Amino acid sequence: MTTPSDSSARRLLEGKVALVTGGSIERTASRVPVVLVHRSVDAIGVAQIEVDNTAGGRLVAKLFIVAGRRLPAIVAGDRALSTVHAREDGFCAAMKRRRPATLVRLRVGFASYEEGYRVAQELSREDRPVAVAAASTAGRT
């Protein structure tokens, strides 16, 4: 198997599509062009591709409203993550316009059996929600 020399490999790599977070983005972006996919980091001057998570949150809320769900809940992770923040904001804004006093919010840590059990316990109370939106992504939130 033949491998290219370092200089020819550098010429072949003209950029990078990154699915990373935190300081590794800055380090990578200092060496090659970077495109972030599904993550928004305003402090870094790189290209970013993301769906409209705020609109997605609004759409879920509107679905619950049209379906007549009287006590909806939203389960969301770390608001420092742009996707979670936008989904939660869209959902809550739409719900508050229609039903300001009937929204249950639950904050979750990282994905684990224990955390899932804790949230399930909270959702199992007597006046439990009848519809639940999840604003977190899989894995650590």
Describe, in plain words, how this protein is organized in 3D.
With 141 residues, this protein is an alpha/beta fold. The protein folds into two domains: 6-49, no CATH class; 53-134, Response regulator (Rossmann fold, 3-Layer(aba) Sandwich). Helix content is 40%, strand content 16%. It has helices at 6-12, 23-29, 53-66, 82-98, 113-123, and strands at 16-18, 34-37, 47-49, 72-76, 104-107, 131-134. The strands form two sheets. The chain has a three-stranded parallel beta sheet, with helices on one face. A three-stranded parallel beta sheet has the order 5-4-6, sandwiched between helices. Helix 3 runs parallel beside helix 4 (82-98). The model has no long low-confidence stretch (mean pLDDT 76).
Q: What's the helix and strand layout?
A:
Layout: H1 6-12, E1 16-18, H2 23-29, E2 34-37, E3 47-49, H3 53-66, E4 72-76, H4 82-98, E5 104-107, H5 113-123, E6 131-134
Parallel strand pairs: 1-2, 2-3, 4-5, 4-6
Q: Biggest sheet, strands in spatial order?
A: 1-2-3
- Tell me, what is the CATH class of the largest domain? Alpha Beta
The separation of the N and C termini measures: 41 Å
Total helical elements? 5
Mean pLDDT: 76
- N-to-C SSE series? HEHEEHEHEHE
Number of domains: 2
Regions with little confidence, pLDDT below 50 for 5+ residues: none
**What structural class results from the helix and strand content?**
alpha/beta
Rg calc = 20 Å
Instruction: Give the name of the CATH superfamily of the largest domain.
Output: Response regulator
What is the CATH-assigned architecture of the largest domain? 3-Layer(aba) Sandwich
